[in-house]
Amino acid sequence: MINTPLFDTTSLMAALPEIFLLSAIVVVLLLDLFLTKPFKQVTYYLTQLSLLTTGVLAFNLIGEPETIILGNSFILDDMASVFKVFMMVAAMVAMVYSRHYLLQHSLFRGEYFVLVMLSILGMMVMVSGHSLLTLYLGLEILSLSLYTLIAIARNRAGAVEAALKYFVLGAIASGLLLYGMSMIYGISGSLNISEIAVFANSATLASREVLIINFGLVFLVIGIAFKLGAVPFHMWVPDVYQGAPTSVTMFISTVPKIAAVAMLVRLLIDGLGAMQPYWSDLFTVLAILSIVLGSIVALLQTNIKRLLAYSTISHIGFVLLGFATGVITGYGAAVFYILVYVLMSLAAFGVIILLNKKGFEADLISDYKGLSAHSPWSALMMLIIMLSMAGIPPFIGFYAKLFILQQVISSGMITVAIIVVVFAVISAYYYLQIIKSMYFEDGDEAQESIPAPIDIQLVVSINAVLILVVGLFPDFWMQLALSLF
Amino acid sequence: MSFDQILFYVFSFWFIAASLAMIFSRNAAKAVLFLILAFFSAASIWILLEAEFLAITLILVYVGAVMVLFLFVIKMLNIDKSSLRAKFASYLPLGLIVAAIIAAEMALVLGNNQFGLEMMAAPARHAADYSNITVLALQLYTDYVYPFELAAVLLLIAIIAAITLVHRNEGNRKTQNIAEQVSVKAKDRVYLVSITTPNKEGK
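Predict the joint structure of the above. Result:
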């Protein structure tokens, strides 16, 4: 009766990035305790080194044949490796920006970096998850770290409120996701993604089995939509973006979105690909609502973090639209879009953090009045980012929207495409409004340019210039995104 | 109806009744006690399903440790119930409508047509010498070693999070100095002062 279980340690090499990162986390966590005040920066440098090494390890695994290890709950394929490399690069950039912010607002603590690394570990688990159980555990590791990161500025009432709101709504979303997973497990009898795929694909599926799978599917889609922040599960996004410390907002709005997309691919395309006609419809509705609401409500915002929150919501709408097409080229376009979005969002928050001063957060749109006069370089960076987000060629944001729209039109959803284009034009208004206040309005008082450390200035510049450079040859990146499916 | 089924219905009834009582209880301490009853009924149902180890763990961990901790917290915090209930009534009608719709829709999907005994056969009974714990242990440390380790990471995060959020800077922390406490002499702590008692007139 007791089957001899198979546990092969030689196959663990496929999980080397995760194993290394967890070991590094424990080392940094313990080392941080023994560092005295003047040496606290060591934690930051060790974090960057750990992320870099993890990224290199993941990069070396690109091109390896698909392997499923650890009791069929961990998958290594090109998508996992490529996503991990992108996540590491984005996290390293985010950490450069974060340090500047944390030092200025006296929030610099070793735990911040440990929690960021733990959340990245959770995301890596999600990206490589091949069973409902590991996907869920990865999500929880990610979420718990994020809740704490938001509340780390516990002296600010806004941060505590944001953390609590995110925590309560996140717990409900996790509950819904788990309920959906339990339904899928109940009917298919397996937690394993490939076994679920075999079950959902079988021709002899009774109608009641299809019904139960769809019932679970709805809850899965709700859980994923919550994590991505799609309408109508977006309630937490603006408040959390505004309330959290800007460095945490930047982190939440970038790297975890890649992981959420990876979870979507694992659950719905790898696992329930046979149910594609059902979830496509759900995604189309979510996407249209997100684009419409994200574009219109953003027009009324005066806080730039809130504005970027609604901008995220409409970007997520485009990503979901790519998945809604139900064809591989559409999935590729969606993955391309999310990576481009992460690049743009990182740069936007980078400029916001660059303009921070001690005791002053540049988070109102009016704070950007006359920016071109006193810091022309930052204003130029912001100009590139805003034009790219609005989807104006030759910046990369244009191609991201173009690829999505091409797929939407070629799959015959003409009405949807028209709605989306109309609202994309409307959304251009609020991006242009920021440009207007930077270049054509005078600041209230004469401000001198803000001295910032050279590392953050350099990284922000590279980040913003990449938006232009990548935009010059988008086909290479699109091919890369397509090769993942 | 077999004896098993009667037991199942009895435990299920108490489970549902206790859960409802917990939600609607106005007193937080009573709610915790109802929750304990709910856990106890759930554990009994698990025993009927031959999952003895899980049932015992539920009682030991949740009833024995977590719920006792809950009671302590509730007794220590003075929760102002009126402010919690302030908006309850205004949200109630909408909440009830939404809840009723969701419950009706779920009942359609999860009814006997889909999950009845004709559709889902009862699992086969194990022999008397079947050891639940052995199977669980073997599975947990081999096939499920990855989720098991991830759960450990989750607990690590909980510890880090709790300390990060609660730990204040060193200035206002109260710590013991053991050496100082041990070497203390009676004259350091107690000193006698002679006071002249005032007379009745207060002079």
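The CA atoms of residues 164 and 217 of chain A lie 28 Å apart.
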